[in-house]
UniProtKB/TrEMBL annotation:
The organism of origin for this protein: Panagrolaimus davidi
Right handed beta helix domain: residues covered: 2-75
SUPFAM superfamilies: Pectin lyase-like (SSF51126)
Protein name, as recorded: Right handed beta helix domain-containing protein
Length: 139
């Protein structure tokens, strides 16, 4: 979407439900709406590109984003030749890129979005004097 203006909508300015591909919004203005400026609900793709766009003065969050329900991230995959003939593609569960309690950085040659795992067993003591157990650096 390029060059759109959405002002004073009774609900969300733009609402995307279950998008299966990337979303691109450029050179636009989404302001003073009663809900969120941009709402992305239950996406299986995860790619959202917002460029040179004003999102301000909305009653809800400026941009509200929710990955696919149940916390499962999916990616498009093509199986072996037999599977390819029967179905052009199917979705598999995406594996985390890192566990930020074990590794503390993502390689610079990987692109967003990143699925990051964080696991602390219930009752894990956190001492504020010691350095944090789980942390990461992202560029």
């Amino acid at each position: 979407m390029n060059g759109i203006n959405i002002h004073r909508s009774a609900r969300d300015g733009i609402y995307f439900y279950q998008p299966t591909g990337p979303i691109l919004i450029a050179n636009s203005s989404i302001t003073y709406n009663r809900g969120h400026g941009i709402a992305i609900d239950n996406t299986t793709d995860g790619r959202v590109f917002i460029n040179m766009t004003v999102v301000q003065g909305n009653y809800g969050d400026g941009i509200w984003y929710k990955q696919r329900q149940s916390g499962i991230n999916l990616y498009k995959s093509v199986g072996n030749l037999r599977d390819k003939r029967q179905s052009s593609s199917y979705y598999e569960e995406e594996q985390p890129r890192i566990d930020m309690c074990l590794e503390h950085g993502i390689s610079n040659n990987l692109f967003f979005p990143h699925l990051i795992k964080l696991y602390l067993r219930a009752g894990t003591p956190i001492d504020p004097i010691l350095p944090p157990i789980c942390w990461m650096v992202s560029f």
